[in-house]
């Protein structure tokens, strides 16, 4: 069985991309096992067949590469499209700034010891924190160049959803971009607390940062950006 598109031609064999995601930043597609597999925006796919009201496709990049998944035909038409990501890495520059002993988070209603920095990507220039935990477990990223990877999986909503109270238009908070460093447990993400991550504290700008990163793909199909960290943190440990 094959479903024809708006032009009357079958979509089977067509290259498609995830062009729309939920407010958490993910599209949940169904695996043959019945479970759901999350896909980030601009994930590349190829339509393999249509059957019993569902569109099947193979994932061509990202953490779920090689998997065959499906959506209901109506959802496939709504969430999948032909807009591709930019076929190059976004360029992020982070420059160290002040260490602030009593930085106040109105959302969390707490003071934090923040090593602040400025992040620039495209036309965006915003404040980030590079570390908030000085127990000895975490420290700010050293100066240098790093690769930022595609989001790995939806992160726990309990870690970020309350930021929406301070920024009602905030979306995509469950999308965290891993930084290729050590065990890859540092991320570019939204919030007011950093465990050695690049944490975007300007909550109203996270939607723009998310789009600036997720809309790019490196030649490996697994990366989105090159991160350059400049300067020296006022507090390194």
Number of helices: 3
SSE class: mainly beta
Distance between the termini: 62 Å
Average of the residue pLDDT scores: 94
Biggest sheet strand order reads: 11-15-8-9-10-14-13-12
Helix content: under 10%
Describe the sheet with the most strands. 8 strands, mixed
Low-confidence stretches: 1-8
Question: Using DSSP, what is the number of strands?
Answer: 15
SSE order, one letter for each helix or strand: EEEEEEHEEEEEHEEEHE
- The backbone outline, from C-alpha atoms, is elongated
> What proportion strand?
35-45%
Work out the radius of gyration: 19 Å
3D architecture notes:
This protein has 237 residues and is mainly β. It has three helices and 15 strands. The protein has helices at 73-79, 163-166, 206-214; strands at residues 15-18, 26-31, 36-40, 44-51, 54-59, 68-72, 80-81, 90-105, 110-121, 124-131, 144-149, 177-179, 186-190, 198-200, 223-230. It has an eight-stranded mixed sheet with strand order 11-15-8-9-10-14-13-12. A seven-stranded antiparallel sheet has the order 3-2-6-5-4-1-7. Strand 2 (26-31) and strand 3 form a beta hairpin. The protein is elongated. Residues 1-8 have low confidence and may be disordered.
């Amino acid at each position: 069985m094959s479903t024809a598109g708006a032009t009357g031609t079958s979509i089977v064999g067509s290259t498609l991309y995830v062009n729309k995601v939920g407010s958490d930043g993910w599209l949940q597609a169904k695996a043959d096992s019945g479970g759901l597999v999350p896909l980030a925006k601009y994930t590349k796919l190829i339509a393999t067949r249509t059957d019993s009201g569902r569109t099947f496709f193979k994932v061509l990049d990202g953490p779920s590469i090689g998997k065959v998944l499906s959506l209901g035909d109506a959802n496939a038409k709504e969430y999948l499209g032909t807009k591709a990501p930019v076929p190059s890495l976004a360029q992020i520059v982070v420059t160290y700034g002040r260490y602030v002993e009593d930085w106040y988070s109105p959302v969390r209603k707490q003071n934090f010891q923040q090593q602040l920095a400025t992040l620039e990507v495209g036309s965006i220039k915003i404040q980030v924190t590079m570390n908030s935990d000085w127990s000895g477990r975490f420290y700010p990223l050293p100066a240098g160049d790093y690769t930022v990877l595609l989001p790995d999986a939806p992160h726990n909503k309990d870690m970020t959803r309350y930021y929406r109270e301070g920024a009602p238009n905030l979306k995509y908070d469950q999308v965290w971009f891993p930084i290729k460093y050590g065990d890859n447990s540092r991320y570019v993400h939204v919030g007011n607390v950093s465990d050695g991550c690049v944490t975007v504290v300007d909550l109203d700008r996270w939607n723009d940062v998310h789009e600036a990163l997720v809309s790019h793909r490196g030649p490996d199909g697994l990366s989105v950006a090159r991160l350059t960290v400049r300067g020296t943190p006022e507090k390194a440990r």
